[in-house]
């Protein structure tokens, strides 16, 4: 049995290494695609990107802010897989009775079933729960793909303020709550931290002080987390999962905010009759920001630390039976990662906004910002 467990762990680690290499390779392809081909349209179209396969299946074909900040599994695996299933079954065009909102509701039910498995003591059952949560994530990609296809929207984009956007966000939140509550019940039910060396040990009762050793009874020491909940309550499963939930909530709010503001800045035609900037000059400035190393650093950071990525890390910890180790990280994830990332992103957005919105007549201002001409 131990040999089988060791084989499964080695296999999982091998797959993780393969996926990591795949993600790095796709990031490099996306980088060169943005650097070498147009992101915003040009009048002559001489630098248009040519995809050997349909752009619905090619995750680097249509470059958007959301795609560049979407976590690796969703961007490079689940989203193309949702597009492929839609292409094969023609869900968007033929299954008119199946709405994106109904798909969103369905992945909440899958999350509830997966959460039930995550609470089990059996590692196999918990891994089944992880697989179900990945099915939930795929359905989350499918509802977005179907909605965009029916609206003729290309690429990953958020239709902020729409009913579908609100329903999808609500269903994502319910799925996150289901997972965090399930992890809490698992930790409370299996609250002996064996890796820290804390086991249930026999101790003598007070009666043993006045009687012989043979007449004494034994009791079990309280579990490690039970001791923590009385002496250090902020490290109990309840407080730890509240911290995890707080971190996930703030991450979701911040990530969606920067998708919205950067999407509005870099993907919209902000020129009108009263504007002093030429449309082609606007496109050029947006492309300069898209290609700048600073924007790539911010986008990659959100790709690694966004809401869906943090969910993936928790699921990976469950799958590898390392949930206690992950929960311990919850106390410093917020100050170590999220708050510095929000600060840097805000500074970068202000800089990018000033650069893109500056009048084309003030070309001398270009040199004062961190976006050199491409």
Automatic annotation (TrEMBL):
Taxonomic superkingdom: Eukaryota
Keyword annotations of the record: Membrane, Transmembrane, Transmembrane helix
Pfam families: CDP-OH_P_transf
The UniProt record lists the keyword Transmembrane: yes
Transmembrane residue ranges: 12-32, 163-187, 295-319, 331-350
Residues in the signal sequence: none
InterPro entries: CDP-OH_P_trans (IPR000462), CDP-OH_PTrfase_TM_dom (IPR043130)
Protein name per Swiss-Prot or TrEMBL: Ceramide phosphoethanolamine synthase
Gene it is expressed from: LOC105427572
């Amino acid at each position: 049995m131990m040999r089988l467990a060791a084989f499964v762990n080695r296999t999982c680690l091998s797959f993780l290494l393969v996926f990591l290499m795949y993600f790095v390779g796709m990031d490099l392809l996306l980088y060169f695609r943005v650097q070498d081909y147009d992101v915003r349209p040009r009048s002559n179209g001489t630098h248009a990107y040519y995809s050997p396969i349909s752009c619905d299946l090619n995750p680097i074909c249509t470059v958007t802010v959301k795609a560049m900040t979407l976590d690796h599994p969703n961007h490079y695996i689940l989203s193309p897989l949702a597009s492929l299933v839609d292409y094969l079954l023609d869900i968007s065009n033929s299954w008119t009775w199946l709405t994106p909102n109904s798909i969103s509701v369905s992945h909440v039910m899958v999350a509830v079933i997966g959460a039930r498995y995550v609470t089990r003591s059996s590692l196999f059952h918990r891994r089944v729960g992880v697989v179900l949560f990945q099915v939930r994530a795929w359905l989350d990609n499918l509802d977005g793909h179907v909605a965009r296809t029916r609206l003729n929207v290309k690429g990953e984009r958020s239709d902020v303020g729409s009913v579908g956007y609100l329903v999808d966000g609500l269903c994502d939140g319910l799925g996150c709550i289901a997972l965090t509550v399930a992890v809490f019940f698992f930790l409370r039910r299996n609250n002996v931290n064996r890796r820290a060396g804390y086991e249930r040990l026999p101790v003598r009762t007070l009666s043993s002080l006045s009687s012989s050793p043979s007449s004494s009874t034994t009791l079990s020491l309280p579990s490690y987390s039970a001791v923590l909940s009385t002496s250090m309550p902020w490290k109990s499963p309840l407080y730890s999962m509240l911290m995890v939930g707080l971190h996930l909530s703030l991450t979701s709010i911040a990530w969606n905010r920067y998708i919205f503001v950067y999407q509005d800045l870099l993907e919209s035609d902000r020129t009108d009759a009263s504007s002093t900037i030429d449309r082609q000059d606007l496109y050029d400035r947006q492309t300069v920001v898209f290609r700048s190393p600073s924007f790539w650093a911010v986008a990659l950071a959100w790709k690694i630390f966004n809401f869906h990525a943090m969910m993936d890390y928790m699921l990976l910890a469950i799958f590898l039976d390392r949930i206690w180790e992950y929960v311990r990280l919850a106390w410093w994830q917020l100050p170590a990662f999220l708050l510095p990332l929000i600060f840097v992103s805000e500074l970068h957005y202000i800089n990018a906004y000033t650069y893109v919105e500056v009048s084309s007549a003030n070309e001398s201002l270009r040199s004062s910002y961190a976006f050199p001409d491409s």
